[in-house]
Amino acid sequence: MTGNPIRSLRPRPFVPGITRARDDALACGTAQTRQLVNILCEDRPGPHSTIVLGGFVPDSTEQVFLLRRMLFRSGSVYYLNYSRRGFSLDLFCAQMDDLVEELTVLHGQRPVIFTVSFGGGLLVEWLRRSRAGHRRSDIAGAILVSPVACLGDVLDSAESKPTTLTARALKPYFGPPETLNNSVVERSQSIFSKMFSSGSQNRPALLGLMKADEIDHFLERVIVSIKGLDFAGASERVRALSQFLELAAWSAPAQTALTEVPTLILYAEMETTVLTRISPTRAALDRDLARLFPQGECRVVTGGASPVQHASLIFHHHQFLPHLAGFYKKLRTFKIKVAA
To answer: Using CA atoms, how far apart are residues 312 and 326, in angstroms rounded to an integer?
Structure first.
């Protein structure tokens, strides 16, 4: 990246021209305005815009920060940052319906959906609902980095005591309702902050792209996004996991594919710090990738001075970049072949 990358991050608020699905979701009373996803955009010319769906934390603007130069080569980038005051799966899917329709109908662009961790589960759920409702998910491609697409991916019900930090942070959200309080949220925020701070020890990976003071500023922004969640924002976002349908149920012979567009799935070499050893999503992809995603490819990202961790797009940017850049390059070729 050139210049000052911190100052160059200037996404503008996106004011949607199509809000039909969003308005219907709000009107029927299943969602509230406090749960609206905040959509930001950085405009660039190109054949494919990208919609970024981040993980639990931090915001999507931070999660793909170091990949923006590569993403801009294909077109505009739309960042979907989940509200810090709440989350509704129904409202999220409605906003996705509207945004994809707007990009395809008003702008003539089929977007790429770029997802990270929890965002991969959101994409799978959106695709599943589109199929179930016989609606066309008019996208050009999909990327799932370390997808968390069901509760079993991060919590093993057979374990009496969680064995990963992520499971320790999330399990209390699924206990008796009376035990879910602000202390649970504060504890999970502390755990996620410590996990991120641990990853930030890999500063050499960032020093080639950013100055030391820029790194400190950037990391501070990430911590603020984690600690800025209120009780409803954290609990509703986490508990949305329990609404995801496991991929195994969708990969039955009678089911159609989730999408026929080119799809890249990337796992890190060290997923066990977050994913369970029995991750149902990973098992389904290993077994039924061709049925779920006929144009799909699944890879493991390795290399570097330290092992590549779950969804580590910030601290292992150099390891993820060749896979992602290659996908976008092939996507342009794929489009030409289809047009021919």
So the answer is: 18
